[in-house]
Structures are given as structure tokens and as C-alpha cells.
């Protein structure tokens, strides 16, 4: 259920509603809108009838049942798109298209510093880089771990770019959160519910990638795990899904962008690198994603992809990334956005 407060309702009236929700055994989630606040009451739906009595409290406009299985992620709760603040000058979900770029994995200080400088010069607003790397093969490079986090922090200090890096298990989540501005959940962990709940408690922005075989509803239910723990700063990422096609690494589901825009208030970014697995296809899919309404992109860029420890074939060289960014500005303008 959602409790819609009247425009101009006082903080005291809102606090009384929150208190009553807790008395009924539900968990309240306050969502601030542009003109009024909405309070989500999440809990056992069998007792939702008792929540209707809240409609008669001071400052309450209405009590509305949420029909979708994903409650807090639904546009029934919040009509306008959420704007996730990353730093003082970077927000995802607003009019600016945010490009996140950098190597798949942090490999050395020289590599991450060179990549950071290159993507910033081209117009990227966030630096990506993996310190902990979950790999299909146990024999593949697994990341530099905390040393990689320290190098990312050093690159942030040098360039001013916020950093995003992946969290792979609950045990290291707090360590990663000490360094990162955005916590990334990769496709393999998209339904690791204990990890999702842990990140919901950390109150850091989370970029949640779609699982390789997930439906859109399953993606939103995973987001719900984070939201239900109190973290409202969730960014969804379409990164391609597994199909029978073998010409690309995955099949980029561009239709997911308008579908998600219709179903949820959470911002949506697209990863054309993992979707295609081939640097030749990254720019066309990036352009298409922006045309379809994406709020941002996450792109792999490496100064020497031929010798990358992971995902070299899908990584753009800095000069190709710069060319892509120049063309991307035209697509942004047509879409009524800024880059």
C-alpha cells in the first residue's frame, strides 16, 4: 500500500503516519516527490485492510493499494523518474546523459590512471574499474582486490571522477563501500538476495545489472530487495540477455528501456560492451540506447585492450571512445538531453 500525503502536509503529520504504519507491523518508506510525499507501507499483504484506516489521519490524501509485485520500484509509488545523486555535479536520471567509462579490471596504477585521464577528456562523468572480478573460470584473473580499490581512489583524486566498482559478496561489501561512489551488482549476482539486502543497508548508490537470463519483472524484484532495506538510490542496467544467437556475446534488449521507463521510476543505463562483446558494435548500440531513452551508458575503455586481463575484445581504445562521444552528442540533442 502507499499513503499519499496532502500537498503541504506537515512533518509532524507525516511522522504520525509513519508511527501508525509501524504499529500495524509494516515497514514505512518515505519517498519525497516534487509536490508531496508518499509513504510506502511494505509487509504481509494479508493484513493490508487495516492500513485503510490511515486514510482518515491528518495530512493524508489517500491510501492506494499497489498492484505490482515490485512495490517501491513501481511508478504507482512515484510518478516522476528518480534522480540519483552521485556527487555534487553528477546525477543519474536528470536531463544529463551520464557516461560511465573505464577498463573492465584495474590492472596497474599506470593503466587505471591513463584510462581515467582519457575517459574524462572525452566527456565521461564516472570512472569504472573492477577490483573484485567474479569470473566464469576459476583460473582467470580475479582482480587486485583492495589494492585495486586504492588505485581507483587515487584515480578519482587525480581526475575528480566518481568511481564505480563491483561488489561480489556481502563480506567485502563494506570494504568496497569505503572507496566507491557507486556499488555495482554484476549479472551473476543479480539474484544474490543476501548481497542485495546488504547493499540496501549501506545507503550508497547501487547500479544493478540485469541477470543474463532475467525477465524484466525479475530485475525489478531484485531492485525491490535493495529498496526494501531502505536504500532508494538504485540504478538499473540493461546489459544484454542470453539467447540462442551467437554472433554477439549477449543480445541487447533495447526494448527493455522503454518498458522499464513505463514500469519504474528508477533510472536506466545500458552496457553496450557486455551486451555485444565486440568493440565494433559498441558505438552503434550506445547510440541506439540513447535514442531509446536510456539515462546513461557504461562503456569499457582500455588503453591497451590487446593485452587486457579481461574483456579486451569488447573494450574501446581511448581514440575510438572519443569519436563515439562526439557522435553521441548528436543523439543526445535529438533526444532532448545533454551529454
Description:
The two termini are 37 Å apart. An 8-stranded parallel β-barrel has the order 7-8-9-10-11-12-13-14, surrounded by 7 helices. A 4-stranded antiparallel beta sheet has the order 2-3-1-4, covered by helices on one side. A two-stranded antiparallel ribbon has the order 5-6. α2 (109-122) packs parallel to α3 (146-159) and α9 (279-291) packs parallel to α10 (318-334). The chain has helices at 11-23, 109-122, 146-159, 170-179, 193-200, 216-228, 256-263, 272-276, 279-291, 318-334, and strands at residues 2-5, 27-32, 37-42, 60-64, 84-87, 90-92, 98-102, 126-128, 163-166, 182-185, 206-209, 234-238, 268-270, 296-300. The protein is an alpha/beta fold and 339 residues long. The mean pLDDT is 93. The radius of gyration is 21 Å and the shape is elongated. It has 2 domains: 2-64, Alpha-Beta Plaits, CATH 3.30.70; 84-334, TIM Barrel.
